[in-house]
């Protein structure tokens, strides 16, 4: 140190923490959460048990019994295992093959049955002119019994009914809506779509409630037409809803048309309007062949399962491509 220079300050040595301070600065362990009691852990299962029990007893168990019963005989062979004899008889029956052909026809008509309520829901959501009328009357057909609907359309589609009178007034010939084998199934399917589209429309409106309106506003600002908005905004935004409506509409077509068929055509003319559910009723109720009817029920279940899975796969693929 040079003479006259101020002495350098002496830095105090860092104080060593005492044992108490070290204990305070040590990381504290989070208190363990107390696990719920056994009753709390079991509560969700207890609440779900009644619903699961109802499904198992009223749905799954009868399904298993029906599948097992389809491998037994009818009449003199009642209760005797017969292997696949019922299924061989089933697919050799021309009426059942007609029923399967009509199932394929309904699957082809399914996009139309879904598009009608989808477009009506779009018009209501976009508040197009007349949307209040649609909102007021769209659900009215869904509250009518299929028997009542069938009776009404029997009068409307009669050979001398109002529909043919209108066709004659505009210069078109009359159509035998319920007596022509090539036309009857389309008439019954059209009546079924009219009578049931209200439920699908409600589902679509619920889907629109979750659609972001800013996307439609952006498309409108960009100059997109209604068709472009539907294709690029509405359809991708309602993919899950469309999948649900497709599957439920298909199930309704295959399992809820018995009343219409019974009242309007009774499976005729010439068995052209047979569907699997009507075939099942005929075999069970008229010919007293419950085992064959069980085989037809099992075949119908497999058809709905395969078609439903195929539809979901196609719609998912189409939703990714849009």
Mind explaining what this structure looks like?
This protein is mainly alpha-helical and 322 residues long. The chain has one domain (91-321): MetI-like (MetI-like fold), CATH 1.10.3720.10. It is 68% helix and 0% strand. It has 14 helices and no strands. Helix 3 (85-92) crosses helix 14, helix 9 (213-221) runs antiparallel to helix 10 (226-237) and helix 13 packs antiparallel against helix 14 (290-321). The protein is globular and about 75 Å long. The N and C termini lie far apart (84 Å).
Mean pLDDT: 84
**DSSP strand tally:** 0
CATH architectural label:
Orthogonal Bundle
Q: Percentage of helical residues?
A: 55-70%
**What is the distance, rounded to the nearest whole angstrom, between the alpha carbons of the first and last residues?**
84 Å
Categorize the overall geometry: globular
The CATH superfamily is known as MetI-like
Query: By helix and strand content, what is the structural category?
Result: mainly alpha
CATH overall fold name: MetI-like fold
DSSP strand content: under 5%
Number of helical stretches of at least 4 residues:
14
Order of helices and strands: HHHHHHHHHHHHHH
Q: Please mark out the parts with pLDDT under 50 across 5 or more consecutive residues, or reply none.
A: none
How many separate domains make up the residues? 1
The value of Rg in angstroms is: 33 Å
Q: Under the CATH scheme, which class?
A: Mainly Alpha
The description of the largest β-sheet is: none
């Amino acid at each position: 140190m040079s003479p006259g220079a101020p002495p350098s300050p002496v830095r105090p040595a860092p104080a060593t923490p005492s044992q108490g301070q070290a204990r305070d600065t040590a990381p504290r362990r989070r208190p363990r959460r107390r696990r719920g009691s056994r009753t709390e852990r079991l509560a969700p299962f207890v609440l779900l048990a009644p619903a699961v029990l109802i499904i198992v007893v009223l749905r799954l168990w009868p399904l298993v019994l029906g599948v097992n019963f389809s491998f037994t005989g009818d009449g003199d062979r009642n209760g005797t295992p017969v292997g696949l004899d019922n299924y061989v008889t089933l697919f050799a029956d021309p009426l059942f093959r007609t029923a399967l052909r009509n199932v394929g026809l309904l699957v082809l008509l399914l996009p139309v049955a879904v598009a009608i309520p989808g477009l009506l829901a779009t018009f209501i959501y976009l508040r197009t002119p007349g949307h209040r009328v649609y909102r007021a009357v769209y659900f009215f057909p869904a509250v009518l019994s299929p028997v009542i609907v069938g009776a009404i359309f029997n009068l409307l589609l009669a050979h001398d009914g109002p529909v043919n009178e209108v066709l004659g007034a505009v210069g078109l010939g009359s159509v035998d809506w319920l007596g022509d084998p090539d036309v009857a199934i389309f008439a019954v399917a059209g009546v079924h779509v009219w009578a049931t589209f209200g439920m699908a429309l409600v589902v679509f409106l619920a889907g629109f409630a979750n659609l972001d309106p800013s996307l439609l506003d952006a498309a409108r600002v960009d100059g997109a037409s209604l068709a472009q908005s539907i294709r690029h905004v509405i359809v991708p935004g309602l993919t899950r809803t469309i999948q649900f409506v497709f599957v439920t509409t298909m199930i309704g077509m295959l399992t809820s048309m018995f009343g219409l068929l019974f009242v309007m055509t009774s499976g005729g003319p010439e068995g052209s309007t047979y569907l699997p559910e009507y075939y099942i009723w005929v075999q069970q109720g008229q010919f007293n062949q419950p085992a064959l009817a069980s085989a037809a029920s099992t075949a119908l279940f497999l058809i709905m399962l395969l078609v439903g899975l195929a539809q979901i796969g196609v719609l998912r693929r189409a939703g990714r491509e849009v």
